[in-house]
């Protein structure tokens, strides 16, 4: 027998002996009966980090550094964003101080880590800002965070499918590499019988318990260095435990679909259309609260190929006046068009309190590289109302201001209390003062 609905700060449910069905917010029926008992729930904050890689065309993407504030002239490369200029902020002179190798830049874009921080080690990383946000915002969603990437490599020193996200131990996190994979993860129901899924989770839990017991026995007599490594291993195990616990919690909760429901993307999508569909899937997932944190490492090679270019993104980034520069500028325009499309989507989705999804989401589009292999003045656009930024301006920070000052500011502006992140040395206070 179905029990009566009761007010909920997150969503209403229909309960039965075998299912828990999440209800979307309904203007006409769903929550009118509770209007007198409770105000509309406060929308959650969301984050989207869009890593475009390979920099931009410095001659036509950046505003003049002397032209700051609200009245700046929008550069040619950002022209498609003109209708949203009052809702976005361009920031110059941000950089990761430890970056000295452009091919490793995407690895540290969201972390600001020092690759050589551990003596005797050639690689070290720390947690990425999206995962700091996810730890706070992802407790009540089906997916704590979602990482998106692409198939194939971009000659950028990383393996295919590498995400932008790094966990609390500085280890890489897996990504969904196609729109089809993202669609099924976010919106397709698993048709495997419930009993089998429950058994699979129990089996994984049993294996994990055995591995953990063996690891504890192994710890006896190890050197300090090996004990530290084993502690990292234990932390990884704890993360798997948390993931399994969340899967169990959501096992009987059907996935929500927005209206209109997304359809499975074409498997042949590449480049510009691939990115656009990924943006649409992110907007739809944020709408139904499947997750509140996305990171997306974009497919630049296939993007410029889909625009008719025959060079690689890496070769394009080493442009000189001529064909390579033309391709770079066309890429800038297409990135701006895609971001404008994403902003349109977020503005068009209404929350339960009447605000838009855009009003409660912080979106950052950027790259670890300025242009060519220059690592100063990382191109950075922030949009959305989630962090309380006073938008509509061009801000020029002091040279070599840590990019992590921005990440720290966005976290704190969204109500996630953080004292530091990566190589930060303070907040960008000018973001919050007109």
Shape: globular
Number of strands: 9
| Strand order, largest beta sheet | 5-6-3-7-8-4-9
Quickly count the domains.
Answer: 3
- The proportion of residues forming helix, as a percent range, comes to 25-40%
The helix count comes to 11
Low-confidence stretches: 1-37, 154-159
Query: H/E order of the elements?
Result: EEEHEHHEHHHHEHHHEEEH
Q: Strand portion, in percent?
A: 5-15%
CATH topology of the largest domain: Alkaline Phosphatase, subunit A
- The average pLDDT is 85
CATH architecture of the largest domain: 3-Layer(aba) Sandwich
Biggest pleated sheet: 7 strands, mixed
Whole-number radius of gyration? 23 Å
The CATH superfamily of the largest domain is Alkaline Phosphatase, subunit A
Structural class: alpha/beta
Name of the level-1 CATH class of the largest domain: Alpha Beta
Report the span from N to C terminus: 56 Å
- Which oligomerization state do the chains in this entry correspond to? single chain
Keywords for this structure?
434 residues, Alkaline Phosphatase, subunit A, two-stranded antiparallel sheet, 33% helix, 12% strand
Q: Would you mind describing this structure in some detail?
A:
It is a single chain. This protein is α/β, with parallel strands linked by helices. It has three domains: 1-41, no CATH class; 46-186 and 260-432, Alkaline Phosphatase, subunit A (3-Layer(aba) Sandwich), CATH 3.40.720.10; 190-253. The chain has eleven helices and nine strands. A seven-stranded mixed beta sheet has the order 5-6-3-7-8-4-9, with helices on both faces. Strands 1-2 form a two-stranded antiparallel sheet. Strand 1 and strand 2 form a beta hairpin. Helix 7 (271-287) packs parallel to helix 10. Residues 1-37 and 154-159 have low confidence and may be disordered.
């Amino acid at each position: 027998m179905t029990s009566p609905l009761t007010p909920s700060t997150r969503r209403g449910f229909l309960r039965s002996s075998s299912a828990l069905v999440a209800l979307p917010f309904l203007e006409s029926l769903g929550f009118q009966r509770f209007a007198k008992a409770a105000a509309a729930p406060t929308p959650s904050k969301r984050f989207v980090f869009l890593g475009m890689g390979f920099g931009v065309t410095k001659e036509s993407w950046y505003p003049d550094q002397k032209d700051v504030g609200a009245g700046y002239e929008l550069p040619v490369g950002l022209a498609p964003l003109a209708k949203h200029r009052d809702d976005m902020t361009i920031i110059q002179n941000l950089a990761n101080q430890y970056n000295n190798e452009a091919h490793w830049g995407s690895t540290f874009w969201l972390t600001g880590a020092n690759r050589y921080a551990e003596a005797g080690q050639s690689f070290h990383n720390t947690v990425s800002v999206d995962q700091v946000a996810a730890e706070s915002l992802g407790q009540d969603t089906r997916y704590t965070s979602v990482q998106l990437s692409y198939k194939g490599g971009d000659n950028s020193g990383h393996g295919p499918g590498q995400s932008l996200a790094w966990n609390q131990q500085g280890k890489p996190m897996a990504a969904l590499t196609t729109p089809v994979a993202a669609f099924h993860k976010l919106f397709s129901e698993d048709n495997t019988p419930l009993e089998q899924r429950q058994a699979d989770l129990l089996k994984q839990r049993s294996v994990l318990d055995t591995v953990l017991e063996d690891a504890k026995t192994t710890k006896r007599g190890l050197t300090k260095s090996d004990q530290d490594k084993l502690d990292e291993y234990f932390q990884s195990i704890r993360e798997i435990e948390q993931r399994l616990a969340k899967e169990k919690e959501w096992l009987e909760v059907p996935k929500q679909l927005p209206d209109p429901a997304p359809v499975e993307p074409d498997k042949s999508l590449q480049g510009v259309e691939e990115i656009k569909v990924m943006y649409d899937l992110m907007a739809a997932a944020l709408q139904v609260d499947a997750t509140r944190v996305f990171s997306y490492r974009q497919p630049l090679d296939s993007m410029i190929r889909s625009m008719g270019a025959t060079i690689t993104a890496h070769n394009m980034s080493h442009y000189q006046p001529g064909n390579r520069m033309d391709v770079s500028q066309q890429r800038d325009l297409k990135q701006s068009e895609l971001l404008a499309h994403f902003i349109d989507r977020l503005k068009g989705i209404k929350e339960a309190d009447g605000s838009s999804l855009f009003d409660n989401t912080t979106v950052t589009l950027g790259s670890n590289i300025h242009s060519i292999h220059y690592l100063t003045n990382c191109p950075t656009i922030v949009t959305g109302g989630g962090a309380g930024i006073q938008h509509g301006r061009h801000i020029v920070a002091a040279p070599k201001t840590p990019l992590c000052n921005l990440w720290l500011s966005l976290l704190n502006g969204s109500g996630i209390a953080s004292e530091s992140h990566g190589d930060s040395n303070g907040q960008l206070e000018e973001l919050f003062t007109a």
